[in-house]
Design goal:
By secondary structure, this protein is an alpha+beta fold. It has one domain. Helices cover 58% and strands 15% of the residues. It has four helices and three strands; from the N terminus they run H-H-H-H-E-E-E. The protein has a three-stranded antiparallel sheet with strand order 1-2-3, with helices on one face. The chain starts with a helix and ends with a strand.
Length: 180
């Protein structure tokens, strides 16, 4: 699991996931912007109808109130999504850094007792599935909160995006052929 090839594949998979998450958030932001533009245009038409006296204030007031509430909701959603884009930016994980950490992990496993090594490995390996000469390891890759430099966020998100300690945990699978 700690070979250079497996680690490079892991880094590639993590970076692909980071990119796809960023694309999803950008798409969400584009959709919010489109809805916001639509609501703003509708409000403008309502105001035009009021100014040209085509309809009375009593007729338009409920609809204007409804559109303003929708506009406020969309503005809040946009701010939240912008904060997510900033905090989950597409910055990639460096393969050399991961290889360095893996070497440290190898050293820890070599120096630890069997029981300590087993306990440590169980902390991030979920399961191992063996099918003939193929094995798939399902494991979590904890990402520390300072794995990338974060720029200051002007508007803080309401939800904690990475958990109480600010870490993200993703489950990955690694398949390989067993030696025969």
């Amino acid at each position: 699991m700690l070979t250079h090839d497996h680690l490079e594949e892991l880094v590639r998979l993590v970076n692909e996931e980071l990119d796809s998450t960023h694309v999803v958030l950008k798409d969400k932001l584009d959709a919010i912007d489109a809805n916001l533009a639509d609501v703003t245009a509708r409000l403008s038409r309502q105001y035009d109808a009021l100014e040209t006296e085509k309809l009375s204030l009593d007729d338009l007031a409920p609809r204007i109130k409804q559109l303003r509430e929708k506009q406020d909701e969309l503005s809040k959603a946009r701010i939240q999504t912008e904060a997510e884009v900033i905090t989950q930016g597409p910055e990639h994980i460096d393969a050399e850094m991961v290889k360095s950490y893996a070497q440290d992990l190898r050293n820890v496993l070599e120096e630890a007792s069997f029981t300590e090594s087993k306990t440590f490995l169980r902390s991030f390996i979920e399961k191992i599935v063996i099918d003939g000469s193929e094995a798939v390891i399902h494991y979590n890759l904890p990402v520390p909160p300072d794995w990338k430099k974060k720029e200051p966020v002007r508007v803080l998100p309401i939800d904690t995006l990475g958990g109480a300690e600010g870490t993200e945990q993703r489950t990955f699978s690694l398949a390989f052929r067993l030696a025969t």
